Amino acid sequence: MDEKASYSESELETAIIDKLQAFMLELGKGFLFESRQRRFTFDDKYFRVDLVLYNRLLRCYVLLDLKIGEITHGDLGQMQMYVNYFDRQVKLDDELPTVGIVLCARKNDALVELTLPREANTFASKYQLYLPSKEKLKRELERIETDLE
């Protein structure tokens, strides 16, 4: 996929699927792909989880929701609902609780902290379309060194 300034959520999902092996290796060991756009229904309403993975080492489902903009409290609540659904309707009794991850272009740490319960298995993480320039990385490392001194 060619580099572009921005992507739609569908294009981002397709890019991840196209590069699934590398993406899953970056997540860590033991990840298995289960489904894309996994649909489930309750109260006559349909919902879709962007990506459903399973970690055989942790023995739990890992749900990924992709957001191309800034994360909202609604996005976090939606993921928490997905996690609750999987815990109550999908996972087996001997499996560990489901983990939900919302990958977004921008996030507000205070919003995430105030929206999610302290013991939640739902997380928000910022992604980058491109690595920063060598100069920007060097400036950031220098800033961190200064902060540590």
Set down the secondary structure blueprint.
Elements: H1 9-18, H2 20-27, E1 31-42, E2 45-55, E3 60-70, H3 73-90, E4 99-106, H4 109-115, E5 122-126, H5 134-148
Parallel strand pairs: 3-4, 4-5
Antiparallel strand pairs: 1-2, 2-3
**What summary fits the major beta sheet?**
5 strands, mixed
The best one-word shape is globular
What is the string of helix and strand elements? HHEEEHEHEH
Distance between the termini: 42 Å
| Proportion of residues in helical segments | 25-40%
Indicate the structural class: alpha/beta
Give, in spatial order, the strands making up the sheet with the most strands: 1-2-3-4-5
Radius of gyration: 17 Å
Tally of separate helices: 5
> Total strand count, please?
5
Mean pLDDT value: 77
Query: Uncertain spans, ≥5 residues at pLDDT below 50?
Result: none
**Which percent range describes the beta-strand content?**
25-35%
